[in-house]
Amino acid sequence: MTKAEIEAVLQAAFSRCDAVNYPLNEQQKQILLGLVVELERLQRQSNNGDDHSEENPLDELTVEQRSLLLEFVKEQEQQNHPWKIKLLNDWLHNRNSASMQFIRELYGPQWLNRVQPRHVAAYAELDNRETLKVKVGDRIEVCNSLWEWVQESGPCAPEWFPCTVIGIAEKDDNGQAYTSCLIRFDSGMEYEIQGIYRWNRYNWRWPNT
């Protein structure tokens, strides 16, 4: 869809909200329309071959702000609440986001839309903590070192394959609890990753796109 088409859909949605006596205020409308601008920017970058995959929006935060965000993400994930949805809902309903209010006031929805799971995971790993947990439906990439011997240089070099998480299970092996993850490759083949947060943590990653 083009920018004009998306804006037309949003304007129709605004009208429907008015019709059922749940009108959005101007700030709420601007948040939604701002996301259209961000989508257009990302599309333009894609068309121009402009690759910003190495940029991490969390680099723009202060150390204190980043720590607050990581803690917030971790708390929301533990409650199975998508953290970005929580913030957007706060903004749309004009609710104060407490410790996360600074994101709304200083960075806005455009910045929030740039943040991907790999960006959060990059800083979480520096603190040696698993902030984001995989969920059914998530897209991740797995390394072929899961099922074959690989070397950085050699006939069997590491390769990464996209897949979708289709199952999560908590297991116990003689008192040692671990998480097992069932994935499905785009080819339709399925594979189980045992110890996804422990011994196999470095054999999967969040995708760059």
Automatic annotation (TrEMBL):
<protein>
    <recommendedName>
        <fullName>SH3 domain-containing protein</fullName>
    </recommendedName>
</protein>
